[in-house]
């Protein structure tokens, strides 16, 4: 078996050996040992965000989208109305989920490079009293932009509405304290900043909101009230749990605590990001976002506008060197993304930059005439701003 590649993606991502090791045993899902592991999982998830006193943790089998869908289906009732604050693809996905669930839904949209503005949210809530729930993405993984969660949570709470936060690509690294930031539900998954393996989403939810949501979900599987009641009854999962994924996530959560918690993890990711950005700029690449709104989670770089760098070739050349980067997801500009999360540190990013530099040098040698590589290595490309 060849060595694992370094994943520079928003998840699944590079995991620690101990996390992968934790999957090398079998578990009986109704055995006391696994029930204890599930209890530890739920407890540790709450502790990451300081939600032990105010929220309950409800894990659900599946990818991150599954928990978003289950939360909207369960918490937004047939007579409610959801307002989604959109500045990227994951916000749009919440709108699509609500529509598919036949829930009343509206959106306020910002350009992908602009953070959501609390004042506009306040105006919208004052103008439409029928809005009962507001949904926001913490770090929009489309670009890597950071939305101002504490300010928006305060606006929503001040207007007496429920707040649903998609913290998928931030939970475990970016600051989120449920003791000071009011949120009805926080949604995330196993395979992003928690550095577990994929297969599990979870919601931290205020129990009173869950109680009120009994019977709301039109889906049997995507019913977080029923899922919660199952755990409360006997500590067991309603349906077959992904036992190895749970074991790996508990190990990864112990690792997060050992690292020093979310603050320490954020510092490591920030160092990864800073190393990456400095190196990429030196090589002539331009960051898509303004640094003021950039989270240290995933960086979007513009494709050089001359068209001489082709994503697929660039990807393949880096993959040959052991690094997997990520395609862009912008609607408005050619781009690619490099994730800064996972069990990686600045040395991995230094090696990545060497691989990128050698890739560009090789493309220079291979090209006839004045190639992309020579331009790139001799002087920084002057990248025009987006058309
Ligand atoms: C990853 C992610 C999701 C869920 O994606 P899946 O592919 O279903 O795991 C949802 N929201 C955000 C912000 C994400 O980054």
TrEMBL record:
What this chain does, per the entry, is described as: Involved in phosphonate degradation.
Q: Which cofactor does it need?
A: pyridoxal 5'-phosphate
Q: Which reaction does it catalyse?
A: (2-aminoethyl)phosphonate + pyruvate = phosphonoacetaldehyde + L-alanine
The record lists the organism as Muricoccus roseus
Gene Ontology terms for molecular function: 2-aminoethylphosphonate-pyruvate transaminase activity
Task: Indicate the quaternary assembly.
Answer: Homodimer.
Q: Name one Pfam family in it.
A: Aminotran_5
Q: Which PANTHER family match?
A: 2-AMINOETHYLPHOSPHONATE--PYRUVATE TRANSAMINASE
Q: Which SUPFAM superfamilies match?
A: PLP-dependent transferases (SSF53383)
**Keyword tags:** Aminotransferase, Pyridoxal phosphate, Pyruvate, Transferase
Q: Which residues carry this modification: N6-(pyridoxal phosphate)lysine?
A: 192
Residues that hold substrate according to the record: 337
Q: Which HAMAP family match?
A: PhnW_aminotrans_5
Q: Does the keyword Transferase apply?
A: yes
Which family would the database say this protein is a member of?
Belongs to the class-V pyridoxal-phosphate-dependent aminotransferase family. PhnW subfamily.
| Sequence ranges assigned to domain Aminotransferase class V in this UniProt record | 39-302
For this protein, what is the EC number? 2.6.1.37
What is this protein's name? 2-aminoethylphosphonate--pyruvate transaminase
Q: Which domain of life is it from?
A: Bacteria
């Amino acid at each position: 078996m060849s060595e694992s590649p370094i994943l520079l993606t928003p998840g699944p991502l590079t995991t620690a050996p101990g996390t992968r090791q934790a999957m090398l045993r079998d578990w009986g899902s109704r055995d006391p040992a696994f029930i204890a592991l599930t209890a530890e999982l739920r407890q540790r998830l709450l502790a990451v965000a300081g939600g032990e006193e105010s929220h309950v943790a409800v894990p659900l089998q599946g990818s991150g989208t599954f928990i978003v869908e289950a939360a909207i289906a369960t918490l937004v009732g047939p007579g409610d109305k959801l307002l989604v604050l959109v500045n990227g693809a994951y916000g749009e996905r919440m709108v699509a989920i609500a529509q598919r669930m036949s829930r009343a839904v509206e959106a306020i949209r910002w350009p992908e490079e602009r953070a959501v503005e609390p004042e506009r949210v306040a105006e919208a809530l004052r103008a439409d009293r029928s809005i009962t729930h507001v949904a926001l993405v913490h770090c929009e993984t489309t670009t890597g932009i950071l939305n101002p969660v504490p300010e928006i949570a305060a606006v929503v709470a001040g207007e007496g509405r429920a707040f649903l936060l998609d913290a998928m690509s931030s939970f475990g690294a970016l600051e989120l304290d449920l003791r000071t930031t009011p949120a009805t539900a926080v949604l995330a998954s196993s395979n992003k900043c928690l550095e577990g393996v994929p297969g599990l989403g979870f919601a931290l939810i205020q129990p009173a909101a869950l109680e009120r949501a009994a019977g709301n979900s039109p889906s049997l599987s995507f019913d977080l009230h029923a899922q919660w009641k199952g755990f409360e009854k006997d500590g067991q999962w309603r349906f077959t749990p992904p036992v190895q994924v749970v074991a790996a996530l508990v190990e990864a959560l112990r690792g997060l605590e050992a690292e020093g918690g979310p603050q320490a993890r954020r510092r490591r990711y920030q160092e990864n990001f800073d190393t990456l950005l400095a190196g990429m700029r030196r090589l002539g690449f331009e960051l898509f976002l303004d640094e003021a709104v950039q989270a240290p989670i995933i960086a979007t770089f513009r494709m050089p506008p001359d068209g001489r760098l082709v994503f697929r070739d660039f990807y393949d050349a880096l993959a040959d060197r052991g690094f997997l980067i990520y395609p862009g997801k912008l609607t408005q500009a050619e781009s690619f993304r490099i994730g800064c999360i996972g069990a990686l540190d600045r040395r991995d990013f230094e090696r990545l930059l060497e691989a990128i530099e050698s890739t560009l040098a090789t493309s220079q040698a291979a090209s006839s005439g004045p190639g992309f590589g020579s331009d790139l290595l001799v002087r920084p490309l002057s990248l025009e701003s987006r058309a």
